[in-house]
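Letters spell out the chain; backbone shape is given numerically. Take this protein:
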Amino acid sequence: MLPSLTRRRAGLRHAIAPATSTAPPGATSETPRILLAAAVTLTVALWGAAFVGIRAALPALGYANLASGRLLLAAATFGLLARRIGVRRPTRAQLPLLAGLGATGYAGYQLLLSAGEQTVEAGTSALLFAAAPVLAAVLARPILHERLSARGGAGLAVAVAGVAVVAGTQGADTGRLGGGAPLVLAAVTLYALWVVLQKRALATMTAVDVTAWATWFGAGLALPFASGLPHAVTTAPADALANLLLLGIIVTTVPFLLWTWTLARLNATAAAPLLLLVSPAALTVAWLWLGEAPAPAALAGGALTLAGVATVQRGARTPEPARAPLPLVGERGKRRPAFSATN
C-alpha cells in the first residue's frame, strides 16, 4: 500500500515539474509555450470575471466586507488544501517577504481598489490600472536588475494605449477622477510592487508556497476590516453572496496561483504587461455574462492591447542562464516539512 502511494506522489511531482521544451523570449525555464498561454488565458479570464463580480456584490456588501471576505474565503480554501497540494513551512528569513506580499497584492490592493471604485468609474479605474505594468517595469530594474528592451517598451506603450481606448468606451473621464482616484492609484502602486516582490520570493520558494502563505498573511492583515462581515452576510441577497463565494474560493485562489507559476517562468518585465489583458477580458466576460455588447472602439482597443502585449513578449530580453524555477510544489526531503495543523 505504502509503495503504491509513494509511486503516485512521485508521478504527481513529475507531472507538475517544469517541462523541457523551447522557452519563449524572456522565459527563465524551459516551459512549453502552450502551458504558459493556457495559464495566462485562464488567469486573465478569471480576473476579468472578478471585475464583474465585484461590481455586482459591492453595493450589497460594501468595500471592506467584500475585500476582507474574499481573502478570508481564499485563506480557508488554501488551509483545507494545504497538505494535499504540498504547502511548506517557510523559514524565518522568508516570513518578512511573505508578509510584504500579503500586505501589497492582497490586503492593501484589495481594500484600496474596492474603496476607490465606490466613486471612480470602471473605465477610469481600468485606465489607472494600466500604470501597474509600467511601474513594475520601473521597479524591476533596481530590485531585480531587469531591463525592458526598446522593442518591449514600445509594445508596452501600444498596450497601454489600447487600454486607454477600452477605458474611454466605458466612460473614463480623467477630468472627473473623483475622491477615490488616489486610492486606486495607491492600489496600483502596491500591485506593481507585489509583482516585483513575488519574483524575489520565487527564487527560494515554490509557486504554491508563495501563493498560499501570501494569502494567509493578506487575510490576517484584512481581518480588522471584517467587523461588519457577519451582519452583511446575513442581510445580503443571495446573488451577492454567490458572487462573494465565487470571488473568494475561485478568483482569489486559482488565478493567483497560476500567475505566480507564470511569473516564475518569465522575467517580471515580460510578465507584468500581460496584466493589461485583464481589461479586454473583463469586456468579454461582461458581454457573455451580462449581455453588455462592447462598442466597436472597445474591440479595437482590445486588439491594440493584444498587439502591444505580443510585441512586449517578442521583445523581451533573454535572461542570463540560470537554474530552472522550483516546481509547482516542493519535494519531500528537500525542503522544510509539509504544513499541518500541528506545525
